[in-house]
Amino acid sequence: MFQNEVLVSIARKYNKSVAQVILRWLTQRGVVVIPKSVHKERIIENFNIFDFELGQEDMERIATLDTKKSLFLSHNDPETVRWLSNVKFDI
């Protein structure tokens, strides 16, 4: 996702990182975002998304990237579901 040509070109346009563009896109759509990082520089970067606004054309370009498939886990894949059901949580 962070190497996607559309996102990289939009990030360059606004002089921001791809992560900032993604966070800004979500925020502009009213999605509550809780970014995660353990690196001080990235934590600061994640909060620096309120000094720019994506234009409507860029918002639409990003929206076209949705393939309706997870880039992380497929909840429709029986092996993934089996794996998830065996995850142990220490509470």
Description:
With 91 residues, the protein is mostly helical. It has one domain (5-85). Helices cover 49% and strands 0% of the residues. The chain has five helices and no strands. It has helices at 5-14, 18-28, 40-47, 56-63, 78-85. The radius of gyration is 16 Å and the shape is globular. The model has no long low-confidence stretch (mean pLDDT 90). This is Aldo/keto reductase family protein.
Report the total helices. 5
- Overall structural domain count: 1
Helix amount: 40-55%
The rounded distance between the terminal residues' Cα atoms is 32 Å
Which structural class is indicated by helix and strand composition? Answer: mainly alpha
Order of helices and strands: HHHHH
Mean pLDDT: 90
Q: Give the total of beta strands.
A: 0
Q: What low-confidence regions span 5 or more consecutive residues with pLDDT below 50?
A: none
What general form does the structure show? globular
Rg measurement, Å: 16 Å
Proportion of residues in extended strands: under 5%
> What's the main sheet like?
none
Organism: Desulforamulus putei DSM 12395
Family: Belongs to the aldo/keto reductase family.
InterPro entries: AKR, Aldo/ket_reductase_CS, NAD(P)_OxRdtase_dom_sf, NADP_OxRdtase_dom
Protein name: Aldo/keto reductase family protein
